[in-house]
């Protein structure tokens, strides 16, 4: 049951990412993906 909920939860974001592969402004989509999945990439000093 948990797997089904997780699969349904990430289905739309994954489709969004697959369908945006043709766009040229990848930085926008990378930022949206980071925000959707709460990914913080540490900055190098």
How would you concisely characterize the structure shown here?
The protein is mostly helical. Helix content is 64%, strand content 0%.
Write the layout of secondary structure elements.
Blueprint: H1 2-19, H2 26-36
Structural write-up:
This protein is mainly α and 45 residues long. The chain has one domain (2-36). It has helices spanning 2-19, 26-36.
Can you tell me the residue ranges where pLDDT is under 50 for at least 5 consecutive residues? none
Structural class: mainly alpha
Q: Give the termini distance in whole angstroms.
A: 43 Å
Whole-number mean pLDDT: 79
Shape: flat
Approximately what portion of the residues adopt beta-strand conformation? under 5%
Question: Helix tally?
Answer: 2
Radius of gyration: 13 Å
Which bin fits the share of residues in helices? 55-70%
SSE pattern, N- to C-terminal:
HH
Tally of separate domains: 1
Largest sheet: none
Beta-strand segment tally: 0
Supply database-style keywords.
45 residues; mainly alpha; 2 helices
């Amino acid at each position: 049951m948990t797997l089904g909920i997780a699969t349904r939860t990430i289905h739309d974001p994954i489709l969004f990412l697959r369908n945006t592969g043709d766009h040229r402004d990848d930085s926008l989509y990378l930022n949206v993906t980071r925000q959707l999945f709460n990914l913080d990439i540490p900055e190098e000093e």
